[in-house]
Amino acid sequence: MSSALYQTIEMLSREKNIDPEIIVHAVEEAIVLATRKYYKSQQTMRGELNKETGEIVVYAYRTVIAPEEELADPINQIPLAEAQAEHGAEIEPGMEIRTYLDTRPLGRIAAQLAKQVIFQKVRDAERDTVFNEYAHREKEVLSATVKRIEGPDMVIDLGKAEARMPRREQSRLESFSVGERIRVVLLKVDRTAKGPQVLVSRAAPELVQNLFQSEVPEIYDNTVVIRAIAREAGERTKIAVMSRDKDVDPVGACVGMKGMRVQSIIRELRGEKIDIIEYSEEITTFAEKALQPAKVSRVSIVDLENKQLEVIVDDTQLSLAIGKKGQNVRLAAKLLGWKIDIKSEEEKRQEVEQQMSAFSGGPSTPIEQVTELGDSILQKLVAAGITTVEALADMTPEQLEEIPGIGEKTLERISVAVRHYFGEYEEGEARPEPPASEAVPAAASAEADAVSETDAMAAPSEEDSSEPEISPAPGEESAPVAEGAKADSEMAYSEKPDSEKPGSEDA
Length: 507
Fold this sequence. Notes:
There is one protein chain. By secondary structure, the chain is an alpha/beta fold. The chain has helices at about 5-15, 20-40, 80-85, 110-135, 205-215, 215-220, 250-255, 260-270, 285-290, 320, 325-335, 345-360, 375-385, 390-395, 395-400, 410-420, 435-455, 460-465, 485-495, and strands at about 45-50, 55-65, 75-80, 95-100, 140-150, 155, 160-165, 180-190, 195-200, 225-230, 235-245, 275-280, 295-305, 310-315, 340-345. It has five domains: about 5-130, NusA, N-terminal domain (N Utilization Substance Protein A, Chain:P, domain 4, 2-Layer Sandwich); about 135-200, CATH 2.40.50.140; about 280-360, K homology (KH) domain (GMP Synthetase, Chain A, domain 3, 2-Layer Sandwich), CATH 3.30.300; about 365-430, DNA polymerase, domain 1; about 445-500, no CATH class. The strands form four sheets. A five-stranded mixed β-barrel has the order 5-6-7-9-8. Strands 1, 2, 3 and 4 form a four-stranded mixed sheet that branches. Helix 5 (about 205-215) crosses helix 8. A hairpin with a 4-residue loop joins strand 13 (about 295-305) and strand 14 (about 310-315). The protein is built from 19 helices and 15 strands.
């Protein structure tokens, strides 16, 4: 039958969830420490608890050494000859010579010291037990109870230990009262001076995974596998699933009939949005699905080594693809494990145009050169980012109509102005008058051409040109010469200065 002392030790061990032998060893060590202090001895001592009687004995012991060995520690060692002389010839080297000490003189101070040692040993044992219990259970979902609320943090009772849930590990949609049972994810166990500190979370993705395993039998039996989870607690969660059975739809299994399964999980998370996506080994296909509900035009791999994607979406889908404060694309990137650069069709088109222009060194004419547009239209186009004539010419009517302040009439005016700028006129459209500096040379050229054609028809022969005659001066009457009329005309032409002859550079 156990003594009252040992029964008390067993009860304390069950309460603290530690081994009774740890407490027994702590009691023995405490009595030894108090005895050594009382006797002021440096001898090695040992205590023993008798479980049946509850008696604790303390003794000092010395080790017997062989004759050939040197006596290094006279306090804790004894030569063989001396030991045999005191305790008999049966003593052999290596044996212990015990000297039992009287513990009855130990007073209140020694008892108080022993009590402190026992409590300290029990606390250390309790900390080690807690650490060993939870250190290997990280990322595991545990059922717990809210014990108390300390400012922004919550203290959670795990049963065998207390845990702390900081504000950053709580969902903004959730609030709990003391005594309420909740499920938490064990994040980590830290050794501190005050003992092991257990941290738990309600914001970890593992909580959503555990909830799906509880609600979806296909996930529990591994017919449907969760491949990736990206979560922003209190906002949205994206979960990628795949089926090992071709006859089982992974998304449908998670949603459940009329959405019952996923709605149950949403209620547990206090209304957090959940996107269930079918996993694909093809990264471009997976990226398209991960950016849902936005519709993606195309996905291309920019850098395979650094895992970078470029995603192009329609202009109307850009804000939806990015999400509120970039949440949708951020969660998609976390789900894929790739960097995502998302652009609209218009942004990509402008980027390609800039690259082509830089590559070809093509012209870039300021849009202000199209004078028919007017200041009002120019301001609207420049505000929309259209600063060159080439960019304006490449835009479709639909794209121009999306610019604020441009309607059908303005669109027609822009179209006409661009055609006229490039010299394209429809039949019946008036062309602008050329500048005065260009009109004179053009008229002179036309007159010279006419003279050239007339003179070419009446080109002189070599014989006629050899007979020089002087044409009459203006105002003088010339004699009628029937046969020489032609010659006179030709001579009059031949006497003109070179600058007035057809074909000259001045003409």
